[in-house]
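Minutes, methods subgroup
Present: GH (chair), OT, SY

1. OT presented the first of two proteins processed in the latest run. Sequence and structure tokens recorded below as shown on screen.
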Amino acid sequence: MSELEPIEYETGTAIRDYDIIKISNTTNGFDVMLDINLDSGYSLSGTKLEISNEDMEGYETTEVEEAIKYALGFFDNGLH
């Protein structure tokens, strides 16, 4: 089987929503298992997201659920 060359794209599809399946502590932070629904109509099941302790500090939160939102691009714009 030949090795695939990476293709660079300008952008991809947006994440519509996600479900947290499992959060596990690791030595360096957290492993998060997610099901993700994309705006394109496709979904990603059993997707693993790694959030490091450094990521948590960068997102200025101690709540892993908040860090997941930030990592996936869900930011509160203060528009309520």
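2. SY then presented the second protein from the same run.
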Amino acid sequence: MVLKIINATEAKVGTNLIVDDVPCTVRSIDISKTGKHGHAKCRIEAIGIITGQKKVFVVPGHERFEVPLVDKRKGQVLSIGDKISIMDSESFETLEIPCSDEIKSELEENSNVEYWDVEGEKITKRKL
């Protein structure tokens, strides 16, 4: 569910965008001035929120991007395996969420974590 659409020139560092159907976070943006017969160009460097893949692309300044809905939530770790089992702190529902090895090494049972729900996909971000 997309709540907002912005132009490329409105994007700032840290803004979340959907690029090629992948939610990404803008790491840097360079905006050129308009020419005599042209439009401003934006060179955007973004990193996928879920995949971590880097994307670099150049688009016209009037290009429109969708802004994904990112819901940041807290939960308690119930068990650690291939995926970690988390109980949401507000709704008390149990979720199976994939986790990177870096974060998994810091976690233990009954510790608290922050997880993000990005357009229906959940990912563990950090230990609280």
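Chair's summary of item 2: The CA atoms of residues 28 and 45 lie 5 Å apart.
Next meeting: continue with the remaining queue.
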